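Task: sequence design from structure.
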């Protein structure tokens, strides 16, 4: 069964699992394949409802226009949705069993409805510690004007 969110990205994490790179195939410095994603108001609202976010900056155009943002924006944590929306189903970061071992994000400007988001992402390093496979990776999200929305670095523990 294929599951797709209303925002249009694949939610079946087992789909294409056999095509994903395994530990030995991950090459530090090699860019990951990514896809542009058109961020819509509906996707922002769906994300906000799913995480319990109800601030009017994300829902109420009249309110948002009166703020320093001048219109609707997405919450900073939208990068969680974008991480999946901007990667194909065979991306190694989507492997079931992947464990988030920590991350740090910097937020520059808000994403907005109508932005076409692109992602530059890669593994920076990989190592084995206590019989676990770690990958250090970075991710930078851009809007269609080439402005950095947010950037982050993290570590994941890869499935064996």
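Answer:
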């Amino acid at each position: 069964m294929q599951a797709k969110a209303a925002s249009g990205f694949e939610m079946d994490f087992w789909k294409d699992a056999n095509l994903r790179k395994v530990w030995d195939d991950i090459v530090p410095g090699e860019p990951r394949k990514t896809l542009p994603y058109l961020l819509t108001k509906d996707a922002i609202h769906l994300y906000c409802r799913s995480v319990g976010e109800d601030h009017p900056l994300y829902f109420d155009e009249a309110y948002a226009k009166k703020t320093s943002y001048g219109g609707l924006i997405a919450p900073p944590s939208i990068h969680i949705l974008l991480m999946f929306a901007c990667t194909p189903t065979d991306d190694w970061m989507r492997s079931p069993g992947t464990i988030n071992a920590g991350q740090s994000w910097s937020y520059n400007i808000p994403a907005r409805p109508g932005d076409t988001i692109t992602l530059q992402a890669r593994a920076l390093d990989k190592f084995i510690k206590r019989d676990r496979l770690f990958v250090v990776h970075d991710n930078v999200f851009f809007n269609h004007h080439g402005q950095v929305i947010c950037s982050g670095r993290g570590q994941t523990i890869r499935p064996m």
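The two ends are 25 Å apart (CA to CA).
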